[in-house]
Amino acid sequence: MQGRHVYEYAVIRVLPVLEREEFVNVGVVLFCKRPGTIHVRTALDEAKLRAFAGDLDLEQLRLNLDAFERIARGDPDGGPIAQLDVPSRFRWLTAVRSSALQTSRPHPGLSDDLEGTLDRLFVELVL
Predict the structure, then answer these.
(1) Range of the structural domain that residue 90 is part of
(2) Of the N and C termini of the chain, which has fewer Cβ atoms inside 10 Å?
């Protein structure tokens, strides 16, 4: 994509034990109003997650992340939230919630290369 793009991103986090408020970064969600896209990239470090909570249900976590990604893509199988417009889906995905899968507050940025920016954020914040 050519030109400068204003974007927002949030870090996707897993809180294995909500009461401890400790988290592990597992992904990044990036939203750009123009061209109207949401990009998500995730990776689970199972060893790190097990160190936080040995009894964590990784299969359920994978299902939750899959649902998160389907909503971001606007997948017809993503339920009613996935049918919302792109800005509304991003706002829903980044809304404050009290669950094991959360996001940071959105942060703004400016990019000439959204895919490159997503790659950089993913490496810096997740890997």
Answers:
(1) 5-125
(2) C
